[in-house]
Amino acid sequence: MGITLGHTQYGKAENRVVRLLRDDDPHRICDYNVSVSLAGDFDAAHLDGDNRNVLPTDTAKNTTFAYAAHDDVAQPESYGLALARHFVDDVDPVSGARISIDMFPWTRLSHSGSPHPHAFVRAGSHIRTASVAYDGTSTWVVSGIRAMTVLKTTDSEFEGFHTDAYTTLEPAKDRVLATTVRAQWWHAVDDRDWHRSFDTVHATILDTFAGRIATVGSVAARYTALAAAAAVAC
Fold it and tell me: Collapsing DSSP states into helix, strand and coil, what is residue 71?
């Protein structure tokens, strides 16, 4: 039986991109971790050691830096779309690109009761994410949030669960609930106010978690409610 080379892709992961948006007054910070994955006509590199179609990963890194000078960088989804379309539309051997971005939020400090023009603290409440895939015809944009730790000191219960011979957990009418939220949502269009979309879903998730869900139930019940709320908000 012969060996057939399957799908391949390669790229450059975790490129740190930081830009100060000085066109705004006061200026803002874009702080990203950008990963690039490319698919295309690269079989010869694997089968014959022929690298003529291989765009160096160092070039992919340099491209993330160069495109950070564009206005698109202000929103991670727009920045990812610009990068993905460049790699597919402008680099002949590349037929598909996936751009994954972690965005680290920064909060402006206050001084003497007023927002400070150039002092910030990195916000540790969450990491915003964006993933863009493009194959020359179709575009896929997924926004998200991760590493968001939330806690309720009461108003959580877990009872009525299935038991067997190894179950020792007692039903609880009231308990502390803490978890880390990771959520993603797909966009049906690729041209929108991404900041507003994210802020809406983020606020909806927190509001839903803080509220009392009917038949409070398990963590899974809360996740189901959070997902439904996020879908409506998006």
Answer: helix
pLDDT tens-place string over residues 10-43: 999 999 999 999 887 788 899 999 999 999 999 9
Phi, psi for 100 (deg, rounded to 5): -115, 130
Which residues neighbour 173 within 8 Å (Cβ) at sequence distance 6 or greater?
157, 159
What residue ranges in 71-200 does DSSP mark as E strands? 94-103, 106-111, 114-122, 127-134, 139-152, 177-187
Q: What is the pLDDT of residues 106-117, one digit of tens each?
A: 999 999 998 899
Per-residue CA distances from 179 to 10, 153, 155, 210 (Å): 34, 12, 14, 13
Q: What percent of the chain has pLDDT over 90?
A: 76
Instruction: Respond yes or no on whether the N-terminal peptide bond of residue 26 is cis (omega within 30° of 0).
Output: yes
User: Residue 219 and residue 177: Cα distance in Å, rounded?
Assistant: 8
Residues 6+ apart with CB under 8 A from 230: 183, 185, 201, 204, 205
**Residue where the block lists tokens 């965005």:** 103
The three-state secondary structure class of 22 is coil
The structure's pTM equals 0.87
Tokens read off for 93: 């051997």
Q: Is the pLDDT assigned to residue 210 strictly greater than 50?
A: yes
> Hey, what are 100's tokens?
């994954």
Let me know how long the chain is: 234
